[in-house]
Amino acid sequence: MTRVLHVLDHSLPMHSGYTFRTRAILKAQAAMGLEVRAVTGQRHTAPMPSDPEVVDGLTFYRAGGTAGGLPLVREWSEVAMLAERIVAIAREWRPDVLHAHSPALCGLAALRAGRKLGIPVVYEIRAFWEDAAVGNGTGREGSARYWLTRVLENDVVSGANRVVTICEGLRADLIARGFAPEKLSIMPNGVDLDLFGEPLPRDAGLANELGLGEGPVIGFLGSFYPYEGLDDLIAAMPAIVARVPDARLLMVGGGPAEADLRAQAQASAVADAIRFVGRVPHHEVDRYYSLVDVVCYPRKAMRLTDLVSPLKPLEAMAQGKLVSASDVGGHRELIEHGRTGTLFPPDDPAGLATALADLLGSRDGWHTRREVAKAFVRERHDWAGNVRRYLPVYQALLPNHELPSVAA
């Protein structure tokens, strides 16, 4: 059986979009017939009761230690520690391929270990982390740190045997940098339909507790980062309520922008129509999804959102929810306007308000659009099928191995 060791920034039991994508990949690969394990670097900060640690039936090794020290020295120390751990694991478990996931530090560690062991390396890019830092408000485009991160990314892409990106935007950007198209593959975001395929009925008790009335309810469930454009959604609410008086906005989650968003909502002329819930346990998210008619993703227009397609809209479609989103590149890869969702101009509260009020006011097509969107996820973004896209990548590096059939 072919063995794949995944190299990660962090993993379960920590909760993030990164860890949930990882869980889905590992679970689907194991179900397909591959033997998979994973190792995390020093950015994994959850308590580690054992090493290896089994979480949700998956085996994770830990590099151990704590990231610290001066910049650059700290990062190189992280890479060295992770590379040493990969080598130790590989000498015991004997993986056939190292599959590293961004950021570039994981890729650098895998390359160092792969050269020492003579094992091929696949590098998977989920986002360009210099652009993610700009979007999160922790970095500045054009800064020395920004360009150093890009240089490191380019070095990893050059050194890896094959490279996978999560969407066409990232792949096209790498091709524009001069990398060979045949080296680059796409593994799009997906949904584990065993988890998201059966939405709960509307939780009337929870709706009453939150004072949502009968709605309709617009919702956002996720992390509150500046690039998500949630300030534009709050700014649009007075115009939406003017046309749809019973409309309510439900905000579930938290993050760096939370305090500013709460203050903006409190000052809104329709403050009574906006509800903040805060973060909720992952196993309760479905209850809050059950209250929402339209899930809205008003991301700002910037490199990050134009190049990277998010996971959340696919989860919402799988939940049978209407999806609305700003017309940026990452959303256009997932949403066909008027068919699987509604697109509106980015950075434009008035345009957002018009699009959502029009959607809320025309319920006749809701059922059809929900069914079309669910079918789109089932046919093109179910992890059970998506994960087979890795097989040609692995097979090119392991020509003498018998891998599961791509068409199975």
Automatic annotation (TrEMBL):
Matching entries from SUPFAM superfamilies are given as: UDP-Glycosyltransferase/glycogen phosphorylase (SSF53756)
Task: Give the InterPro entries listed for this entry.
Answer: Glyco_trans_4-like_N, Glycosyltransferase_grp1, PEP-CTERM/XrtA_GlycosylTrfase
Question: Carries keyword Acyltransferase?
Answer: no
| Keyword terms of this UniProt record | Transferase
Which superkingdom?
Bacteria
Pfam families xrefs: Glyco_trans_1_4, Glyco_trans_4_4
Q: Where is the Glycosyltransferase subfamily 4-like N-terminal domain?
A: 17-190
**Gene Ontology MF annotations:** hexosyltransferase activity
Q: Per its UniProt record, what PANTHER family does this chain match?
A: SULFOQUINOVOSYL TRANSFERASE SQD2
Q: What is this protein called?
A: Group 1 glycosyl transferase
The record lists the organism as Novosphingobium subterraneum
Taxonomy of the source species:
Bacteria, Pseudomonadati, Pseudomonadota, Alphaproteobacteria, Sphingomonadales
